[in-house]
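Q: Hi! Curious about what Sigma-70 family RNA polymerase sigma factor looks like structurally. Here's the sequence.
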Amino acid sequence: MTQGGRADADWSELMRHAIAGDRRAYRQLLTDVTPVVRGLVRARAAGMDAAWCEDVVQETLLAIHLKRTTWDSDRPLRPWVYAIARHKLVDAFRRRGRHVHVPVDDFADSLPADPAPDPLERRDAESLIGRLPERDAALLRCLALEERGHAECGARLGLTAGGLRVALHRALQRLARLRREGA
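A: Let's find out. The predicted structure is below.
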């Protein structure tokens, strides 16, 4: 089964390599996943403007990045990615105050049960984020730990939408560097 140019097994293999530290595989995975996520978001968000959809895509990619170690490598990656995209889309609609109905029957066969949360994951994330420069830490706390929207976090930190995306990208790079250094 292919979609977006790669088979499910390819996505899964790329994620396995990415989790093991292969930056090239991770870059390729994100290159392959992004247009598929974008298409999914746009299809489910008919009538929403492109910037709103792109925010949902970015939130989905951030969630994939932050939660990548929770993926069960014995399962295909595509359903896991789709589930994250659907959750982020529903969250975005909720923040906007729009009722969303996503028929569970459409996805029942592909959705694994949520794994039990790792009780140390939040503590570890807070510890690692706490080692970042204050602005980076504040941005990641707002988006990832508090699960606030881009607009709210941007306003809180005095950032435009474009400035927030740039700051987020740089903060994630610094965070990844800290993690690689054995934080």
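A: A fun detail: The two ends are 39 Å apart (CA to CA).
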